[in-house]
């Protein structure tokens, strides 16, 4: 709070001169709302009481133009000689007769309705009202979107039961590239300051490349600030379950054409609590101190800055960001060696002991667009460096001696990306987009533990699609894409020798080779066609597409122990690209007080890649091999809402995915991390303004999840559960002439229910989800 008031003071006390005025009707003497008071470098808009304030003035004479649609324009001159100058402006009514005008353009909602792609737009209001510990946990309330949670502060997205590198996350037009293939690798994106997200369910390879075989989470650039504006906000968060304290400060400003934005975020949290004090994993009992899941504390420090230029035909913004995090892993999730560890994991719930990881993700992107005639050219360039260190207690395994340090694995990945698109309209009926994506990855490795080799990966793709209007209520989209990729892996030998048996009965000590120098090429075609039909308040969509995904280096060339999963993982250089065929339907009906939507889909994989447990062992560790199988999938999302009264809104949603392997060693089994049938019911009650509180809402959410009995060994059946969450949202006017403060109180898992999330990383070792959590979030805006 001290920081909030300090920023407030600095922002508004730099110049002590101001104009405080009132705009009224000369005829009725009633306040005039929405009058524009515009000077050379200053402007203001009158409030519903007719009041306005112009700040940051120096001594001198200023000329302002006061205008309003229903009144005659007036010019006033004001001389500033004292701290505050009062001003009262009387406007004369002047009814205007407008000539006929033609409005060209469509709302975002209308564009979404006309597109045959199954997509959903997420607003800033939704993100602020539903913010959880990570961006993906915040989005998990969207039907069809789930998360693989790694503790309380990390998670990765799952769309319709598919995750890892099958879901593309795009930020500012550039695909986010880290180490998404890892089960325990979260997403390095600061969720504060994001205003718009579009979620595409189903294949989106046509535009975003081969990895978007399951869907896309598109974090879109924020809206460009208005001319001569300044905005800032401070977000403060505290939580009881993991003693989290977080603060995020953002600002943006624009003069005429140039603008800038910036944000700083820091979060510190302790071990989170679970509603049990004993965990039983592989017949070993872990006792928890005060319900704390030891060594799950973490820290996060993020910064971002951008500068941009906009005019009638050109817009360009360069964005810099850095996300830095250090997170502990539940000690017993890293194997059973912790039984003999000398670390006092219960000494402090804020310590980050071994095992832990450190991640730093640095990103530079530039988004530029140029308009010329019917063409709009988009050029997006990005550079990313993802540096990741995984530390664990040095323990000898097999022939490997005790390492000298705790750096088990190090990944240092550089990614260069370029996207060029031409969006042109030959006429009012067609919207044609042609483009090219190219990306180069350079991934280096280090540490004493080997899992994947050093590699280089180059991909390039060209695409074109046309969305054309048959009639105003009927639109068809068709497109084609071709991708080509080259993967170069480098050889790796153990840093220690192992004893092997020779054919003549003798033994030798050799340095085993884990990977080899190998160059692999992949290429394939993606295609899509669909239509959207709008019938009054109902929209019907159908889309059929073929997409593919290139195998990843870990799927092709891994050969080592993954101690986080306590298994030996082995790649397969003979893997083919995944090919997927999918049919999507979507029906939405919107009435004045009622909404209903359903989105069924059917999906078939010709050669799905997955990690299969085998009956073989390496030094007491079970060997898992990457293999391929045919997979059939079917599912749907359903959502509905209604306004029972003007101040009461009821919402319901459900999602279900069924998967079955139709070939391979796990024939007739489902896929790993398959989300079960789940439903979410909520009630939102709007209270009347009172006691200085405005727009107060009470929200109750009740999630019902069925048991997941469709599993693939070594997964276990997960029982169903019900969880109740409560929220209170309100606004309060704390400072005069400033926007209201937004306050959010939230109580998650009201009854401290012990339950298991089938898609959680820690579910594999029988760790339940977090217990009861009380959180408070405060957003303080500073606008000028």
Task: Give the arrangement of secondary structure elements.
Elements: H1 2-12, E1 17-25, E2 36-38, E3 43-45, E4 51-57, E5 60-68, E6 71-80, E7 84-91, H2 108-114, E8 119-122, H3 124-129, H4 135-139, E9 145-150, E10 154-159, E11 162-163, E12 167-171, E13 174-175, E14 196-201, H5 205-208, E15 215-220, E16 229-239, E17 245-254, E18 258-269, E19 278-281, E20 284-287, E21 298-310, E22 314-328, E23 356-372, E24 375-391, E25 407-424, E26 430-446, E27 455-471, E28 474-489, E29 492-493, E30 498-501, E31 507-510, E32 513-515, E33 518-535, E34 538-549, H6 553-557, E35 559-562, E36 567-570, E37 578-590, E38 594-618, E39 621-645, E40 648-661, E41 678-686, E42 693-705, E43 721-732, E44 741-748, E45 773-783
Parallel strand pairs: 1-7, 12-15, 36-39
Antiparallel strand pairs: 1-4, 2-3, 2-5, 5-6, 8-14, 9-10, 10-11, 12-13, 14-15, 16-17, 16-45, 17-18, 18-21, 19-20, 21-22, 22-23, 23-24, 24-25, 25-26, 26-27, 27-28, 28-33, 29-32, 30-31, 33-34, 34-37, 35-36, 37-38, 38-39, 39-40, 40-41, 41-42, 42-43, 43-44, 44-45
Structure at a glance:
By secondary structure, the chain is mainly β. Helices cover 5% and strands 56% of the residues. It folds into two domains: 2-91, Carboxypeptidase-like, regulatory domain (Immunoglobulin-like), CATH 2.60.40.1120; 204-783, TonB-dependent receptor, beta-barrel domain (Maltoporin, Chain A, Beta Barrel).
